[in-house]
Amino acid sequence: MLEKMPKEVVEIMAMVVAGKIPSYVLETRLGDCRRAAGIRQEALRRITGREMDR
């Protein structure tokens, strides 16, 4: 999945996983709800080690 994501998205996701950026501020910082939701979902998958049901 990493090969499909732009470097910027990977960096933001890493900051969310590391706790440097709270996931609830992604919409405000990115200005794009769908993009923020995708980043949040992937970050949560990495933190928990589980897939999210859609």
TrEMBL record:
Select a single GO molecular function from the record's annotations and give it: hydroxymethylglutaryl-CoA reductase (NADPH) activity
Gene3D superfamilies, per the entry: HMGR, N-terminal domain (1.10.3270.10)
* One GO biological process term: coenzyme A metabolic process
Q: What name appears for this protein in its UniProt entry?
A: Hydroxy methylglutaryl CoA reductase 1
What's the source species for this entry? Zea mays
